[in-house]
Amino acid sequence: MRRPDLPAPLAHAHLAKTGLVTLVSCHRANHAGLAAANVMAAITAEKPLPKQDKSSTVDGNDQLYGIETENLGDGKDTYTRAQYDTWVRWNAAICRHHNWGAGSVAGHLETSVEGKIDPRGPVEGYGTRGKFALTMKQLRADVDERLGHAASWSPGTTTTYTVAQGDTLWSIAAAKLGDGNRWKEIATLNGLKDADAITPGQKLKLPAK
Q1: pTM of the predicted model, to two decimals?
Q2: Which CATH number applies to 13-147: 3.30.1360, 3.30.920, 3.30.110, 3.40.80?
Q3: Are strands 13-15 and 67-69 parallel, antiparallel or unpaired?
Q4: How high is the mean pLDDT of the chain?
Q5: Of 1 and 120, the one with more pLDDT
Q6: SS3 176
Q7: Which CATH superfamily is domain 159-206 in?
Q8: For the chain, how long is the longest CA-to-CA vector?
């Protein structure tokens, strides 16, 4: 990303779609621009964020860490599963370092008085969750969940289902994953060769929806 009107660095870190974070700067970075003072006060107090009051601003670059997350920003380009997982980890790591809570996490669209609209767009998935639309509320919730565990913790990627009478892998896939054709994923995950070789009471691992 280049901004001829702004001196580098333009972020503290870059997050690629592969999930790799590259440190860009450990000092001030020109990423946030002008931020609403009332929003910054709420972030500092870790209270629900109000609508930006543009009448009073502060330099967000002086007060906020910035991660440039690879995305076209058109609301359609998808954040990968690996990318979102690292995003949550990165925010949680900073919060742990400063003894902050997830309420200290915010997006440009929440702080900026200059019309920034990021982050936005669909996320491929996280943990056992399938595709979902990115919201800062959800990101904060996921950071908060991680902060409630040891730093080495990771969310599970499978759920467990107990086979009922009359179930087939196709019917389970249709009911639990929303697509009967995904029965082969269930079979592979559980080492099954025959789609009908399941019995009531048997426990199966299911992939993310």
Answers
A1: 0.81
A2: 3.40.80
A3: parallel
A4: 92
A5: 120
A6: helix
A7: LysM domain (3.10.350.10)
A8: 67
